[in-house]
Amino acid sequence: MAEEIILLDYWASMFGMRTRIALEEKGVKYEYREEDLSNKSPLLLEMNPIHKKIPVLIHKGKPICESIIQVQYIDELWPDTNPILPSDPYQRAQARFWADYIDKKTYVPCKALWSETGEKQEAAKMEFTEVLKTLESELGDKKFFGGNEFGLVDIAFIGFYSWFRTYEEVANLTIVAKFPKLISWAQRCLKRESVAKALPDSDKVLKSVSDHRKIVLGID
Amino acid sequence: MAEKEEDVKLLGFWASPFTRRVEMALKLKGVPYEYLEQDIVNKSPLLLQINPVYKKVPVLVHKGNILSESHVILEYIDQIWKNNPILPQDPYEKAMALFWAKFVDEQVGPVAFMSVAKAEKGVEVAIKEAQELFMFLEKEVTGKDFFGGKTIGFLDLVAGSMIPFCLARGWEGMGIDMIPEEKFPELNRWIKNLKEIEIVRECIPPREEQIEHMKKVVERIKSA
């Protein structure tokens, strides 16, 4: 039943997108609830008291926080449809390693790319460029990060693609021209219905962030 | 076919809680392994070659498979050697164990040690903020022998290597009583339970050396 699963999320969150993609991949019905991050709902604060962040997956009343943990959870509950993690322990470990790498290395610089200026933004640009280089090298000539099948690492990173235009415009960062393999990979991912449904329009993200920078942060 | 020591190698550092927890897991499962102590200041060509992304320990090598990041290593060990399971079978319980383990390493560690050492807003404020985080763990272990229930599990290995035998040595060196028994009776009971377990005792760094080591870490943090 749809009420069994509730997802507290924010439309532009690349982390929320992961959980949305996983649920779609499994064909699971759920209730999507948009959170106003400047005015968080009592449910969000109750279900994620430690971080007070989205996405929060609520299954039969019990919360699961952290998007990669949510994706793993969803994969375990519906193992037979479009498996997300490999069954081989070593392949699985590789997938978890790279998903974790993406989390560790993108959170801080990606925020700074759109919320900072000057030196802080420049440092973030360098950091994120290094991450893109590493990921493109890891992807190589494979169809997806795990090989021929769409999986965890693809889900972990594809949401960032909807932010590339924002980073290019707001931070003056070159991505599309510099990382053709990643762009081709993203296009392949977008052919999947789950991804096409989950990712917002890049221009919509850019407009929202630009407005936020101007109005809330006071940056021109 | 019996497992040989050469099948499993662990590159580690004696004072690293991330390394200690992997050793605990291997011993818990009775897996023979070869331990290779690493100089983490002058890193060996081997370390740089097998962990090019982070250049850190621990790294586990198993029949040619190279694994790094302690949580990933623990999950791998649990899947290869099925005796004495570390992670819960139930998907929700497993998700909770993974969540709390991430909380310990990414939140509690930095706030309860680095922030306290730096004390940018003063030591008292830093301690108060850290204790707020420990309250969550206090709740989580209430009424249980271990975070894993009757026996030690994933979160016990992560929190156990990090809190009583690493962070606590640091607090001792700083003269701080971070988790006093009156405020944190359950956590203190959990620590007592941990100390009763032979494989935990076998894997923890020597107390005095660890206190000295953590004092040096504090100096590095302060001068950074």
TrEMBL record, chain A:
Record localization: Cytoplasm, Cytosol
GO biological process, one term: glutathione metabolic process
Predominant location category: cytoplasm
InterPro entries to which the protein is assigned, alphabetical: Glutathione-S-Trfase_C-like, Glutathione_S-Trfase, Glutathione_S-Trfase_N, GST_C, GST_C_Tau, Omega/Tau-like
Reactions catalysed according to its record: RX + glutathione = an S-substituted glutathione + a halide anion + H(+)
EC number: 2.5.1.18
Pfam family, one: GST_C
Keywords, ordered alphabetically: Cytoplasm, Detoxification, Transferase
An example Gene Ontology molecular-function term: glutathione transferase activity
GO cellular component: cytosol
Domain GST N-terminal, residue spans: 3-82
Protein family membership: Belongs to the GST superfamily. Tau family.
PANTHER family registered for this protein in UniProt: GLUTATHIONE S-TRANSFERASE U23, GLUTATHIONE S-TRANSFERASE, GST, SUPERFAMILY, GST DOMAIN CONTAINING
Name of this chain's protein: glutathione transferase
Organism: Arabidopsis suecica (Swedish thale-cress)
Source organism phylogeny: Eukaryota, Viridiplantae, Streptophyta, Embryophyta, Tracheophyta
UniProtKB/TrEMBL annotation, chain B:
Residue stretches making up the GST C-terminal domain: 90-217
Keywords: Cytoplasm, Detoxification, Transferase
Superkingdom to which the source organism belongs: Eukaryota
Gene Ontology CC entries for this record: cytosol
Biological process per Gene Ontology, one example term: toxin catabolic process
EC main group: transferase
Molecular function per GO: glutathione transferase activity
Domain GST N-terminal: from-to ranges: 6-85
Compartment(s) where it occurs, according to its Swiss-Prot or TrEMBL record: Cytoplasm, Cytosol
UniProt cross-references to InterPro entries, sorted A to Z: Glutathione-S-Trfase_C-like, Glutathione_S-Trfase, Glutathione_S-Trfase_N, GST_C, GST_C_Tau, Omega/Tau-like
Documented EC number(s): 2.5.1.18
Major subcellular location class: cytoplasm
Catalytic activity: RX + glutathione = an S-substituted glutathione + a halide anion + H(+)
A Pfam short name: GST_C
Protein family according to the UniProt entry: Belongs to the GST superfamily. Tau family.
Name of the protein this chain belongs to: glutathione transferase
Native source species: Arabidopsis suecica
Taxonomic lineage: Eukaryota, Viridiplantae, Streptophyta, Embryophyta, Tracheophyta
